[in-house]
Write a structure and sequence with these properties.
Blueprint (H helix, E strand, L loop, with lengths): L7 E5 L6 H11 L4 E2 L3 E2 L14 E2 L2 H9 L3 E7 L2 E6 H9 L4 E4 L2 H10 L4 E6 L3 H10 L5 H15 L7 E4 L3 H16 L2 H16 L1
Parallel strand pairs: 1-7, 1-8, 2-7, 3-4, 8-9
Antiparallel strand pairs: 3-6, 5-6
Family: Belongs to the guanylate kinase family.
EC number: 2.7.4.8
Catalytic activity: GMP + ATP = GDP + ADP
């Protein structure tokens, strides 16, 4: 019996590209993936459950975990910490589960430093014009904010060299199918399969 470890998949891309929409659609179709539960110091909102929606921690607990290198990535946002706990992700992978992390570009670069064996997928818009339309269609941004977000998005798109795969988010269903193909192909990679087979052969010989 070959024991296959899980793989950490990181979906990232510029703000406004539709990461959340693609992730939600992917999870509606693919129940084998485990979503990476984030950790935060903000108080739970009504109906939120610890260990389901977030892992809720005190500021002291979170900072202690940062100090002890227990976070794959973290950020400080509007007075609270948010991040991805290393032990939770590692436990899921050791149990053979694929873990899926949807995250901003800066967070993804932190993950690459702390967890380089992850598979990094970069979601891009069909064009910058399309990205601008998506940001404007949200209806929540002033003209200046739209300009700032587009400038930031252009800088983030230049980061795609750090990623293993690039997926164009033109049609949601097509983008989801492409991500599913990436998951399947990663499990068939020779180096992954070879390591597992060699371990099985060694057990068989002993």
């Amino acid at each position: 019996m070959i024991e296959e470890k899980g793989i950490l998949f990181i979906l990232s891309g510029p703000s406004g590209v539709g990461k959340g929409t693609v992730r939600k659609s992917l999870f509606d179709k693919d129940t084998d993936l485990k979503y990476s539960i984030s950790m935060t110091t903000r108080p739970p909102r009504e109906g939120e459950v610890d260990g389901v929606d977030y892992f809720f921690k005190t500021k002291e607990e979170f900072e202690d975990m940062i100090e002890n290198n227990k976070m794959i990535e973290y950020a400080h946002y509007v007075g609270n910490y948010y991040g991805t706990p290393k032990d939770y992700v590692q436990k899921q992978l050791d149990n053979g589960n694929d873990v899926f992390l949807e995250i901003e570009v800066q967070g993804a670069l932190q993950v690459k430093e702390n967890f380089p064996e992850g598979v990094f997928v970069f979601l891009i818009p069909p064009s910058l014009e399309e990205l601008k339309d998506r940001i404007i269609s949200r209806g929540t941004e002033t003209e200046e904010k739209v300009r700032n977000r587009l400038a930031a998005a252009k800088e983030e798109i230049e980061m795609m060299d750090y990623y293993d795969y690039v997926v164009v988010n033109d049609q949601i269903d097509t983008a989801v199918q492409t991500v599913q193909s990436i998951v399947r192909s990663e499990h068939c990679k020779r180096e992954r399969v070879a390591i597992q087979y060699k371990k099985a052969l060694e057990r068989d010989e002993s």
